[in-house]
UniProtKB/TrEMBL annotation:
It comes from Actinoplanes oblitus. This is GNAT family N-acetyltransferase. InterPro entries: Acyl_CoA_acyltransferase, Bact_Acetyltransf, GNAT_dom. Coiled coil: none annotated. PROSITE patterns: GNAT.
Length: 157
């Protein structure tokens, strides 16, 4: 567990699925308004979190004052998701989650980010991620141009 004095990072539990689903949907709608509207209801997203995300990925949640404020999901060495509640952005919680992911990825971490997601791109670049390649959107469901970013620890370079 890491702690900034207020926020703890812990492994996600099945009981967290509903809150993770709410954060996932809220964060995407606020930070990526160019995405198509979410067609799945809360129950469907919760089921996806419980039955797919938590089973396929090592997932951590950030907890402040007994409330989950964000989550990160790592599949192998690929960061599949890092989302925060919109009202807690820019408070260091994303950095705490990313640091936890990096601690569990001694060989480095890759991720995909939409080219239009300039806030996320700036966040990852600030944390030492570099662009590996670009895509026209043929590899994601949204068909939007994206980038592959990679962070490699100094000792692994």
């Amino acid at each position: 567990m890491s702690d900034d004095g207020k926020t703890q990072i812990r492994f996600a539990a099945e009981a967290d699925a509903g809150v993770i689903a709410r954060i996932h949907v809220a964060s995407r709608s606020v930070t990526m308004p160019y995405l198509p509207p979410q067609k799945r209801n809360h129950e469907q997203v919760t089921r996806w979190v419980r039955d797919v995300l938590l089973k396929q990925c090592r997932t951590w949640v950030a907890v402040r004052d007994a409330e989950i404020t964000g989550y990160a999901a790592l599949n192998g060495d690929v960061l599949e998701h890092l989302y925060l509640r919109p009202d807690v952005r820019r408070q260091g919680i994303g950095t705490l989650l990313l640091n936890e992911v990096r601690r569990h990825s001694p060989g480095g971490v890759s991720l995909h980010v939409f080219q239009r997601n300039t806030d996320a791109r700036a966040f990852y670049e600030c944390h030492g991620f570099a662009v590996l390649d670009t895509s026209d959107g043929d590899r994601n469901m949204e068909n939007l141009p994206d980038l592959t970013l990679r962070w490699t620890p100094v000792h692994a370079r």
